[in-house]
């Protein structure tokens, strides 16, 4: 169903990882798996024997390493035991690589803390390694859960979908223990229908689609916020913020740095607006940067003829020092360089009184332009 959505089909490739399991009826098998999203070709991978979850996770790891080697972003959508397979794979990846390509994990009725199924199946199929792993308080589950909590800063963002009519995995088990706030979605499904929604209006379908689209926006935002290399071709030479630096006789290196910061901040502002982040938060950040400027302006310029270079250097240093507290923002990816650029964006605004020498005004800018034009 998801592959029929235009946004999904144009931006994601879909692959399936199916594994074999027999829980109760030995004459019937149920393929319980997860969707593997990333930039990979459509392919089905099948395992035809009951093996433990750890072994399945190793096979999943190998499959991703072989088939996904060219891709940077993977989203795992996993149902039931497939979620434990996925978690074991992610943790192994983090152990070996210190990072993982999995950027988002959508958990559908996954028995993070054990399953009633295990209690039923354990009486019938005691030798099934998957059943043993699913037993509440099993050593496998304890290890997975403890490691997941310990890796809280590196595991992918996880969304927990659970069925309100699920008699196999209840809500308490479908939502894993973790230190950070748990993101959960209640669905009017049982254990099996949650992975096979009957319509595109069902909450599980809409919820998964929404998370994929949000991820897509985040990736695009990340691309837009990547540092852009600035080439000083003279295009910014007549901008107000540059002229303010020149009439204050600021060192050429500081002028070039200011151009780079300004250039970076211009791309940042467009990306923030395009991504729909709060303009109030952005305005608050501008105001705080302006406050730092005002505090330092009179203190540094008083009685010092060579204060302009010192003023701009001091404010740059203060922005660096206070980036994580006074200049902290809820908008992601606004780093120090972008905040430095925001200072020069304000200096480029005719309504803002950002100057690098005490007595300067627009009149000085006009005189500088006339003198420059007369000499050309």
Polypeptide structure, described:
The chain contains 14 helices and seven strands. Strands 3-1-2-4-5-6-7 form a seven-stranded mixed β-sheet, sandwiched between helices. 50% of the residues lie in helices and 10% in strands. The N and C termini lie far apart (66 Å). The protein is elongated, with a radius of gyration of 28 Å. It is α/β, with parallel strands linked by helices and 376 residues long. Helix 3 crosses helix 6 (139-150) and helix 8 (203-224) packs antiparallel against helix 10. The longest helix has 24 residues, at 252-275. It has two domains: 2-222, 3-Layer(aba) Sandwich (Rossmann fold), CATH 3.40.50; 227-375, no CATH class. Residues 69-116 form the GPI inositol-deacylase PGAP1-like alpha/beta domain. InterPro entries: AB_hydrolase_fold, ABC-3C_CTD8, PGAP1-ab_dom-like, SERAC1. This is PGAP1-like protein. It holds the Pfam family CTD8. Keywords: Endoplasmic reticulum, Membrane.
């Amino acid at each position: 169903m998801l592959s029929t959505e235009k946004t999904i089909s144009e931006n994601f490739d879909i692959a399936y990882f199916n594994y074999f399991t027999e829980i109760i009826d030995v004459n019937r098998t149920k393929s319980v798996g997860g969707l593997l999203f990333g930039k990979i070709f459509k392919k089905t991978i099948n395992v035809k024997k009951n093996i433990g979850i750890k072994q399945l996770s190793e096979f999943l790891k190998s499959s991703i390493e072989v088939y996904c080697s060219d891709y940077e972003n993977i989203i795992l959508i996993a149902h039931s035991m497939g979620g434990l397979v996925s978690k074991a794979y992610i943790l192994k990846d983090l152990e070996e690589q210190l990072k993982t390509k999995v950027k988002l994990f959508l958990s559908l009725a996954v028995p993070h803390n054990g399953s009633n199924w295990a209690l039923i199946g354990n009486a019938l199929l005691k030798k099934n390694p998957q059943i043993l792993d699913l037993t509440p308080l099993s050593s496998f589950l304890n290890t997975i859960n403890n490691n997941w909590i310990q890796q809280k800063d590196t595991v992918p963002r996880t969304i927990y979908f659970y069925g309100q009519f699920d008699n196999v995995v209840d809500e308490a088990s479908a939502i894993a223990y973790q230190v950070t706030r748990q993101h959960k979605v209640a669905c009017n499904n049982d254990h099996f229908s949650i992975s096979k929604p009957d319509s595109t209006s069902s909450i599980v379908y809409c919820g998964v689609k929404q998370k994929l689209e949000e991820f897509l926006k985040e990736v695009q935002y990340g691309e837009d916020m990547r540092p852009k290399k600035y080439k000083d071709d003279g295009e910014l030479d007549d901008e107000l913020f540059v002229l303010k630096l020149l009439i204050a006789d600021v060192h050429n290196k500081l002028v070039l740095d200011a151009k780079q910061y300004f250039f970076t901040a211009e791309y940042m502002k467009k990306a923030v607006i395009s991504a729909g982040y709060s303009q109030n938060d952005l305005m608050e950040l501008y105001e705080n940067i302006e406050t730092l400027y005002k505090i330092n302006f009179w203190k540094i310029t008083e009685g010092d003829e060579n204060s302009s270079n010192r003023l701009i250097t001091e404010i740059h240093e203060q922005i660096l020092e206070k980036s994580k507290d006074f200049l902290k923002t809820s908008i992601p990816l606004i780093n120090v360089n972008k905040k430095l650029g925001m200072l020069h964006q304000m200096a480029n605004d005719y309504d803002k009184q950002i100057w690098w020498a005490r007595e300067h005004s627009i009149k000085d800018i006009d005189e500088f332009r006339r003198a420059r034009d007369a000499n050309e």
